[in-house]
């Protein structure tokens, strides 16, 4: 029973830790994709050193000439020996300030261990030049914050993007994403790193929060900040969802089949950005009984679509289908395939109805010379030659 209680308490504690990490990763924590996890097995108190008169450059002097984020600007024994007498401490002498190994390396015993655990602080996945910022008179605290109440500095003392944007506004300093973020050969930002995937999270200063359910509400944001989106994503990335094969609710709402005719009439070009009228729309209409080639058992639904046959097909006049087609071809192709028109209007079928206006013969040669693909829909190459159009 006692063992079960310990397990339950352990699981509760673990869930709290996980919840805490999740909150930190979206609110206060730095992105692991930018600042990889660190291992800092040392003891250090920035507050104590600052109160003793130390300055940033006392320990981090190399930062003033550092031009790469890969430079290691952390102090080693050489910097520590400015104040700590390490040689005297190794010989057993008492020093002020204390200089024994275990003062900075907790638990280290030189008689047992060959060397203390190594510090692991991977470089940030960014472009950064300390020297340039020093030349611009940027104070250390501007990026790293005041260290007067900080003991051991960690990733939490590395700058967040909101801090960078205070200067990188396009006037004082460049505001392009690629000025700081690493780029791929294509010119787009690198998003995947061994330490994590780069994505804007809660508190993103540009308002690009890619948190939970972002795929359901990113439409308006993407239309306003298309250039920003394209700095990370390709058009093909968008098409993985926004094509004719997938219809997630983030693209179309529930019962869109009932509502889509209204939107299709209002903005057919938006529909055609993903759907092809002949292969997608018409095929669906035919399966549902709307369309000339629909199953005959469903054709009763089409009775009220067109006026009586004679006025619609045979008799010229305002109700003739040719007039309607010239006004709104999009309405026609929503139900009819190209083959429907060719049944009567093709020169290669038994029933031929010339769709060309009077006097078209004079323009025939010019049209065919420009692009004869449309001509070959109804005419053979030999017939075009005979007519002198080729």
Give the topology.
Elements: H1 2-26, H2 46-51, H3 56-59, H4 77-80, H5 86-90, H6 101-104, H7 130-135, H8 140-144, H9 161-164, E1 192-193, E2 196-197, H10 214-217, H11 219-224, H12 226-230, H13 235-239, H14 256-266, H15 268-272, H16 277-287, H17 309-314, H18 321-327, H19 329-333, H20 338-345, H21 361-370, H22 381-386
Domain Cytochrome c7-like: 42-105, 127-181
Pfam family, one: Cytochrome_C7
Signal peptide: 1-24
Structure description:
By secondary structure, the protein is mainly α. Among the domains are: 46-170, no CATH class; 171-251, no CATH class; 252-298, no CATH class. The chain is built from 22 helices and 2 strands. It has helices spanning 2-26, 46-51, 56-59, 77-80, 86-90, 101-104, 130-135, 140-144, 161-164, 214-217, 219-224, 226-230, 235-239, 256-266, 268-272, 277-287, 309-314, 321-327, 329-333, 338-345, 361-370, 381-386, and strands at 192-193, 196-197. The protein has a two-stranded antiparallel sheet. β1 (192-193) and β2 (196-197) form a beta hairpin. It starts with a helix and ends with a helix. Keywords: Signal. This is Cytochrome C. Residues 42-105, 127-181 form the Cytochrome c7-like domain.
């Amino acid at each position: 029973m006692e063992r079960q209680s310990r397990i339950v308490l352990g699981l509760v504690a673990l869930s709290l830790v996980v919840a805490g990490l999740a909150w930190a990763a979206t609110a206060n924590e730095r992105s692991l994709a930018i600042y990889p996890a660190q291992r800092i097995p040392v003891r250090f108190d920035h507050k104590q050193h600052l109160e003793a008169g130390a300055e940033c450059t006392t320990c981090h002097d190399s930062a003033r000439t550092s031009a790469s984020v890969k430079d290691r600007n952390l102090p080693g024994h050489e910097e520590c020996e400015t104040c700590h007498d390490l040689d005297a401490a190794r010989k057993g002498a008492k020093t002020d300030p204390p200089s024994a190994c275990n003062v900075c390396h907790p638990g280290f015993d030189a008689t047992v261990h060959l060397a203390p655990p190594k510090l692991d602080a991977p470089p940030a996945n960014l472009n950064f030049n300390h020297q340039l910022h020093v030349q611009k008179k940027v104070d250390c605290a501007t990026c790293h914050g005041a260290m007067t109440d900080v003991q051991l500095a960690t990733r939490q003392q590395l700058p967040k993007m909101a801090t960078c944007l205070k200067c990188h506004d396009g006037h004082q300093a460049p505001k392009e994403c690629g000025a700081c973020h690493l780029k791929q050969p294509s010119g787009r930002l690198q998003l995947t790193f061994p330490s994590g995937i780069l994505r804007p999270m809660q508190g993103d200063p540009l308002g690009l929060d890619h948190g939970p359910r972002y795929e359901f509400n990113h439409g308006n944001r993407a239309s306003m900040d298309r250039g920003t989106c394209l700095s990370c994503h390709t058009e093909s990335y968008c098409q993985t969802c926004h094509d004719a094969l997938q219809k997630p609710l983030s693209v179309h709402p529930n019962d869109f089949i009932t509502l889509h005719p209204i939107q299709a009439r209002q903005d057919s070009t938006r529909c055609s950005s993903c759907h092809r009228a002949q292969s997608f729309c018409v095929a669906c209409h035919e399966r549902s009984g709307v369309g000339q080639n629909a199953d005959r058992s469903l054709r009763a639904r089409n009775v009220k679509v067109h006026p009586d046959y004679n006025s619609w097909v045979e008799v010229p006049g305002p109700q003739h289908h040719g007039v309607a087609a010239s006004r709104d071809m999009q309405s026609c192709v929503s139900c009819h395939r190209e083959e429907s028109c060719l049944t009567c209007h093709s020169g290669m079928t038994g029933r031929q109805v010339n769709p060309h206006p009077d006097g078209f013969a004079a323009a025939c040669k010019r049209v065919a010379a420009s692009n004869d693909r449309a001509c070959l829909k109804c005419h053979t190459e030999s017939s075009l030659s005979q007519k002198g159009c080729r």
